[in-house]
Amino acid sequence: MQVPRLNELKGWRERLGITQMKAATSIGITQSYLARIESGSANPGYKLILKLSDYYAQIEGMPEDTVENKFHKGVDSVEPHETLERAASLMKWKGYSQLPVIKGGQNTGSVTEAMLSAKIHGVGRDIAMKMAVSDVMGTPFAEVDERSPLSLAAAMLKHTSLVLVKKGHRYEGVLTRSDLL
């Protein structure tokens, strides 16, 4: 293997999606020393550069993680005709901040705490709680197959707070940002 130049190491690490802390710990140096190497203010020895290169090459050759082992099994949802009171109760009971709206096995929308709060403040709690979910629901959450690369789901989660996970045509669970921590 050709040993990379020092100015190439940072880009290589970033392309692999590895933090400085993870890379440094994996090869037995401190994160601050790796930061100095990447910025050009430290001059590491050949063996350390080779060790770092070997680590990145090993990561590069590994199969990418899939969504399969990261998501929460089971999908709690509401239907469009159900009341906001039902949605609010389910969210409160389960500790959720959002729910998918599913009708006939199809992902038709979403409902969030923010949507519920806005409706309550707009028309009052008594009226809002009797309204149908369809009166406030937003766009459906993104969907991904359980065998999809985790990096795909992570990219989706930059734009949404929840991704529905499917196996074939069936919803198997959900993946949220906290699942990637």
Task: Please describe the structure with a list of short key phrases separated by commas or semicolons.
alpha+beta; single chain; two-stranded antiparallel ribbon; 434 Repressor (Amino-terminal Domain); 44% helix; 2 domains; CBS-domain
Brief rundown of the structure:
With 181 residues, this protein is α+β, with helices and mostly antiparallel strands. It contains eight helices and six strands; from the N terminus they run ααααβαββααβαββ.
Q: Could you describe the 3D structure shown?
A:
The protein has 181 residues and is α+β, with helices and mostly antiparallel strands. The protein has two domains: 56 residues, Orthogonal Bundle (434 Repressor (Amino-terminal Domain)); 114 residues, CBS-domain (Roll), CATH 3.10.580. The chain contains eight helices and six strands; from the N terminus they run ααααβαββααβαββ. It has a four-stranded mixed beta sheet, with helices on one face. Strands 2-3 form a two-stranded antiparallel ribbon. Strand 2 and strand 3 form a beta hairpin. The longest helix is centred in the first third of the chain and has 16 residues. The model has no long low-confidence stretch (mean pLDDT 92).
Detail the poorly predicted runs.
none
Number of strands: 6
Spatial shape? elongated
Task: State the CATH topology of the largest domain.
Answer: CBS-domain
How would you classify the helix and strand content by structural class?
A: alpha+beta
How are the elements arranged and paired?
Elements: H1 6-16, H2 20-27, H3 31-39, H4 46-61, E1 72-73, H5 84-94, E2 98-103, E3 106-112, H6 113-123, H7 125-130, E4 142-145, H8 150-156, E5 162-167, E6 170-176
Parallel strand pairs: 4-5
Antiparallel strand pairs: 1-6, 2-3, 5-6
Helix pairs in contact: 1-4, 2-3, 2-4
